[in-house]
Amino acid sequence: MKRRGALLAVALLLLPSAGATRDGGSRLAATGRSEVVVTLSAPPLALAPHGAARVNAAQHSFRTALGERLPEARVRWRYRLVQDGFAVTLPLRDIPALRDLPDVRDVYRSARYGPELEQSPGDIGAPAVWGAGLATAGQGVKIGIIDSGVDEHHVYFDPAGYTTPAGFPKGQRVYTTPKVIVARAFPPPGSSPAARQPYVQGDNPHGTHVAGIAAGDPGTHASGGRTASGVAPKAYIGNYKVFVPTISGVSPNANSPEIVAAIEAAVADGMDVINFSGGETEIEPSRDIVARALDAAAEAGVVPVVAAGNAYEDEGVGSVWSPGTSQRAITVGAAGIDGSPATSFHADFSSVGPTPISLRMKPDVVAPGVNVLSSVPGGWSSISGTSMASPHVAGAAALLRERHPSWTVEQIKSALVETGKSVRLEPDSAVLAGPQFVGGGLISLPAADQPLIFTDPTGLSFGLPRPGSDTRRTVQLTDAGGGGSWQVSVDQWSELPGSQIVVPATVDVPGTLPVELAVTVAGAQGDASGFVTLRRGADVRRIPFWGRVSVPALARHTALSLVHTGSHSGSTVGQPALVGHYRYPEDPRGLGVHVKLRGPERVYRVRIRKRVANFGVVITSESIRGGVEPRVVSGLDESRLTGVAALPVVGNAYMPEYGARVPVAGALLPRPGEYGIVLDSPSASGAARFTFRYWVNDVTPPKVRLKTRTVGSDEPVRLRITDSGSGVYPASLSASVDGERVDARYVHGRVLVSTAGLAPGRHRLQLRVSDYQETRNTENVARILPNTRFFSASITIRGR
Prior knowledge:
By secondary structure, the chain is an alpha+beta fold. It has twelve helices and 46 strands. A hairpin with a 5-residue loop joins strand 2 and strand 3.
């Protein structure tokens, strides 16, 4: 399980293990309260700058009604720029009533994101644009680092020679310097005292490392006699701490309300660039509040830069994480540099597009992300990851912002994407990596500084066209100093039989470039990808594109309609074997699940008619052990898995069972529409009869009732556990008495807790149990462990 081990190495640096119940999110849940984001109907001011009066009036009405109708609710954060709404803490029972308050558009449960871990300004050509005497090395530009906190006293951020700009410092000023000009912390409810400080000793070093890559001081003496410089070494840094420590000292993930609050603050503070080197598996983008906030920040004129994720070895193609799925953010993958930029290669951990649910053309670019030297508290370290690639691009965007202050966010993005350099697929291979791996390629600042043309969009996704179709896209071309006629061709074309990319021979700038993916009736299935290349003499600009010609085999099944939740029975015996492979993600073997399911499948059709939090199935029995596995797809199309939630593995990193196989598949925050639930077999010999449980919108944990409070010596304590939604997940059951773990057995709703060895008298029993939906939950759809019950009671052991 090497790949799973690599994934856990990232998780363990940031996530609590069995002590997860002590983090802020869990302790808030233990009080019966939750944190949610409430958005109102007016567009935020970043999208509608003249709408302040409407926003203020609606927010006043909401807060008045909130106080009158839900007096136990408390507003934690107010959003006006990148969202119109509030972060609110309130009793769990009151959450449904929020939707009845004036002007409420939607209510989002707290989501949590985790930093992503895994060289140099010279590799992307940064020194070439710094100017004589570092005249244009980022002076006056402000980069907001939304991360785990920045050690403002590190030598890499020496404030000597800097002058604090007008209106600064901001935030907790004791943590600022003339270099680090903003210091803010965004602790979730119930956090440790250290979480309220922008930086304390013991904070995760991730943020300090990222900040150094983006804007560390020029010519700083590092370890081993080396000299280090950030990409924009003269830029200012804004420290926005969202990855916070728990009381146990372990740094977990960041809550979505706090991340949105940090984005809001960065925009209001006047940051020019935002870097967020964090992520989680994708959910439906229109319901992803962090991705939406980044899109709004771009509209407000701030360049958002995001890490793509480190999931390729675990999930294969289609592994880009949220909020790298943001339409307008610059999503960054990682490249290794083998001696020079000309020999760069795709880093084997770096996530690969398309985005798994929205099928967007991502990542946008790549940057150095292997063994990157930068600052950490108390010294220096070389770390690998897309987290390290992302601040290279943030620094590059800062340099372009200084040198070209009239460029828009989209134009800065275009300059970086369309001037990217080719990257090899592997270190020892001459094969070039396609757009799914590297987007436009390795960023090159000298070329981006003189892009000649701007394109909108910067990359193209054709989605999943069928044979016999023509799918058209249009690219708007704007003059950036290279107007006139350009030759057009298609390079690194995947040569998919029966498919063709149709482009004109030439195009004038400014103008419109039509691009068409034409597929014959007999066209083969597979990826259709490459670059639309514009040439004029020695100048070359590339537009990455991707699509996949697909013929859904599941649609040929006679699907059975599932109308009612609860228990059902079925069989794959005698059913056709039409589907052997599902996507996206395409290759989840690193998660320990089957990639190929060559046996027969039974297909069920479900229709989600309104917005729900989730739905799913669990196989409760089968005639052949391991003979059937569940999958969930959108639109009866095996190429449209509902992300990682569709796979039979525990994807909730806060469960001790994280990574374990479990016969469950589902969807998180699905859009209303038609879905397929597929019970498939790994092989023809695995056909089996089965029973399964189907649920929709399970947002409550199991119920626990103590049956025996007083027992004799060595007599077990009896409890009753029920769950009317997805059902009790037996493997999640754990119990302790007076803080010491004890044996507990679950059988058909009954739990027996051992009291062996306990002395007569009163004791404190604590029990934790989850339902099957909890195995689907990831940190960007709900607070920590929303479907887990933490039960505590006093018990008495009678004397002999």
